[in-house]
Amino acid sequence: MTQSAVHGPDGSMEDGQGQPGPEPERGRGSTPWRKSAAITAAGVPVGILWWLLAPSGLNLLSGNAALRNGSNMETWLPRDLVLAGLFLLAGSIAGALVSGTKDQGPPSRDVALAVLAGALGAVIAWRTGVLCGVWWGPAADASASASTAFSLRSYAMLAIWPAAVALSVFLGGVFTTPPKPASGDPAA
Length: 188
Hints:
By secondary structure, this protein is mainly alpha-helical.
């Protein structure tokens, strides 16, 4: 004879013979915070990638030796655009991470946390890239212009990561199929 599962004194499931049953599901309370922490922490590798790929950094994208010098004004815009592209990629991935399920979108709290985490990740990436330039880059004389050193000229680029998170969540909600109504429910 099979006995149904009952809750034990500590709230865990038991199979009726005192043996522990399957683990109860963990609450969703910590998941948005973990995702937000992961999004924020992603700023460190994004900043390192920025320094590795961008002109006047290590310049692995083009490999052109003339673009490794920060005093070359032609490197300033591409340096910012490389960071913008990395922010767009990171924001799209972060938005997909929090976009919810096919049948249910994410709670607004999760989206707000992800957007804030994207903003913090962008600042961390920027500062990490600048720090990599100071540590591993050539010594630059920034007396003529601060942009000679590895830096960000357009601070508006920092808004790309959180904007990409919000846009990715929005587009995920727009392009998912709405749940089918139950057989007794009229179609809206």
